[in-house]
Design brief:
This protein has one domain. 21% of the residues lie in helices and 26% in strands. The chain is built from five helices and nine strands. The strands form three sheets. Strands 2-4-3-5-6 form a five-stranded antiparallel β-sheet. Strands 1-9 form a two-stranded antiparallel sheet. It comes from Corallococcus macrosporus. This is Zinc ribbon domain-containing protein.
Length: 175
């Protein structure tokens, strides 16, 4: 399975402003998720910000947190938002997206999230319930969120690349 490290591509002033915040909570087991949701009851309604760190561990932070703060300023294997549902056997991940304008991960980062969920013994959807496609315009350099498969830059009307190109990324092996 190919996993990639994504660097933060958001505004530097946001990175500097949030670096005093603690990194997201590591979720390595169902008990960790249950405890985190108990400590953050608003997440049951609002959802949470999440990243998968370079060790393959899921990290959670309150929904309105910056992904770069959740990641402790580090590269990530994946990032986005999660929504939860309580079942008779505990909490499950009901919805997952790769919505992170700080890291702009490709949709293939699902593999990293799936691995983190499996390692933690958590149940979730079989893929992103809301997948976001990010592309950088090769003409004007602006970041774009591709909607309805319309690969045209919203800033200069240039065609956007078919393949992810937001920033350089590197392959990572997670042990």
């Amino acid at each position: 399975m190919d996993l990639y490290a994504y660097t933060y591509v958001g505004p530097e002033e946001i990175r500097r402003a949030v670096m005093a915040h603690p990194a997201g909570a590591s979720i390595r087991a169902q008990e960790d998720l249950d405890r985190w949701l108990q400590d953050h009851p608003e997440a049951g309604e609002e959802g949470a910000t999440w990243v998968v760190d370079l060790t393959g561990c899921l990290r959670l932070a309150p929904r309105r947190s910056e992904h770069v703060a959740c990641a402790g300023g580090e590269e990530v294997l994946a990032a986005g938002e999660l929504h939860f549902q309580r079942t008779a056997t505990g909490w499950v991940i009901a919805e997952a997206s790769n919505q992170s304008t700080g890291y702009c991960p490709d949709t293939d980062c699902w593999d990293a999230l799936s691995l983190a969920l499996t390692r933690a013994g958590l149940r979730g959807p079989p893929g992103f319930t809301h997948a976001i496609t990010f592309r950088r315009c090769t003409r004007c350099g602006e970041l774009n969120l591709v909607k309805e498969q319309w690969f045209v830059c919203m800033f200069c009307d240039a065609d956007l690349p078919a393949l992810w190109n937001v920033a350089p990324r590197r392959r990572v092996v997670v042990g």
